[in-house]
C-alpha cells in the first residue's frame, strides 16, 4: 500500500468547505472538531493548503456560534448543549440532538493545531475575526476552569476530569500564547492537574488509549511519563487487531472489547517521538497486517474477530496510518 492510496481514501472524506467527515458511514457522516484536527495532521508540513483550509472551516463554524462563546466566557455552561459543540452537520451547523458536548480536548487540539500551523508558516488566521475567535476560545477555557472541569473526554462518555483533555488544553494554550493573551496561571494549573492524574486517564480509568495523545501529537509529558504510558497501553490494552480504548469498554462489545485500528499507528508515532525506531517499525508492520487491500482502514474490529464495524473508513485511522507511513519512508531513505 502506498501513500497515494491512503491519501485518496482520506480525500474521499474531505468536504468542499475544507472540513472532513469522520467517516462516510451513516453514523459518522458528520464533522467533529477533534476528528478534523487529527485528519489533517498529514498536511502540516505539506505545501498544499488542505491543512489551513480545514482550520478555516472550523473557524467559520465558530463564527456562527460566537454568541455562545460570548456567553460562556463569562458564565460556565451548565447543560451539555451549552458547551461549544463537538460535532456538526456537513454544512457546519449544530445538530439538535442530545450529545456529550463537554469535550475540552476538542478545543485544546483546535488551538494546538492553529499554533502548529503558524509555526510551520501556514496562513492559519484570515483576519481579525479569526484572531478574536482564538482569544475567545482561550477565555472560554479560562471560564470553564478546564484544569478542574469534568468533561465527556475524547470518547464522549462519562463526565469526569480526563488527563487527555487537560493535556490537550495545556498544549493548545502553549501553542497560541504568543498569538493571543494566555494568562500563565492557566497553563500552570493545567500542568499541575496533569501531574496529579498521571499515569491514569481519570478516576475510573487507569489505562486509556486517549493517553497516547499526550505523547503524540501534543508532547506535553516527560520522557519518563511517555514511556510509562506506552508500556501500560501495550501491556494492558493491545490486542491482535488493534488497541482497546480501555478495559471493559462496552462500545461494539460482543464478548470482548472492540479493537481500535488507529491504536497501532498511533503507538508507532509515539515510539517515533521517543526515538525508538525499531518499535515504530514493529507497529507499522502491525498496521499493515490489519489494513484492507482497499486502504479503507475501519474504526475498529469487533473483539476477537476480523469483522470491521460500519465506520469504514475512519478518517482518524487513515490519518494515523498515513503519518506513520511517511515517517517510515523517511527513515528508510535516511538509512539508504
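-> sequence recovered:
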Amino acid at each position: 500500500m502506498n501513500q497515494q492510496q491512503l491519501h485518496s481514501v482520506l480525500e474521499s472524506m474531505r468536504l468542499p468547505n475544507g472540513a472532513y467527515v469522520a467517516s462516510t458511514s451513516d453514523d459518522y457522516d458528520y464533522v467533529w472538531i477533534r476528528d478534523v484536527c487529527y485528519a489533517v495532521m498529514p498536511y502540516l508540513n505539506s505545501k498544499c493548503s488542505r491543512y489551513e483550509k480545514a482550520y478555516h472551516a472550523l473557524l467559520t463554524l465558530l463564527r456562527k456560534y460566537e454568541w455562545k462563546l460570548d456567553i460562556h466566557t463569562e458564565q460556565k455552561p451548565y447543560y451539555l448543549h451549552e458547551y461549544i459543540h463537538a460535532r456538526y452537520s456537513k454544512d457546519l451547523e449544530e445538530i439538535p440532538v442530545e450529545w456529550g458536548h463537554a469535550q475540552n480536548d476538542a478545543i485544546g487540539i483546535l488551538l494546538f493545531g492553529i499554533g502548529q500551523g503558524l509555526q510551520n508558516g501556514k496562513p492559519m488566521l484570515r483576519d481579525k475575526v479569526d484572531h478574536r475567535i482564538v482569544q475567545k476560545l482561550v477565555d472560554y477555557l479560562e471560564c470553564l476552569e478546564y484544569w478542574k472541569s469534568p468533561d465527556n473526554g475524547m470518547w464522549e462518555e462519562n463526565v469526569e476530569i480526563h488527563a487527555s483533555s487537560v493535556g490537550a488544553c495545556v498544549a493548545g494554550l502553549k501553542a497560541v500564547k504568543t498569538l493571543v493573551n494566555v494568562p500563565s496561571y492557566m497553563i500552570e494549573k493545567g500542568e499541575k492537574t496533569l501531574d496529579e492524574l498521571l499515569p491514569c486517564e481519570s478516576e475510573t480509568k487507569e489505562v486509556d488509549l486517549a493517553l497516547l495523545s499526550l505523547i503524540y501529537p501534543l508532547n506535553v509529558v516527560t520522557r519518563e511519563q511517555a514511556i510509562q504510558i506506552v508500556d501500560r497501553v501495550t501491556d494492558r490494552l493491545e490486542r491482535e487487531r488493534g488497541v482497546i480504548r480501555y478495559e471493559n469498554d462496552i462500545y461494539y462489545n460482543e464478548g470482548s472489547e472492540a479493537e481500535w485500528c488507529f491504536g497501532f499507528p498511533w503507538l508507532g508515532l509515539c515510539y517515533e517521538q521517543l526515538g525508538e525506531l525499531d518499535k515504530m517499525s514493529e507497529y507499522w508492520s502491525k498496521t499493515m497486517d490489519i489494513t484492507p487491500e482497499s486502504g479503507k482502514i475501519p474504526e475498529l474490529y469487533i473483539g476477537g474477530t476480523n469483522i470491521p464495524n460500519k465506520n469504514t473508513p475512519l478518517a482518524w485511522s487513515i490519518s494515523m496510518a498515513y503519518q506513520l507511513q511517511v515517517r517510515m519512508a523517511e527513515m528508510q531513505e535516511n538509512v539508504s
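The chain has twelve helices and six strands.
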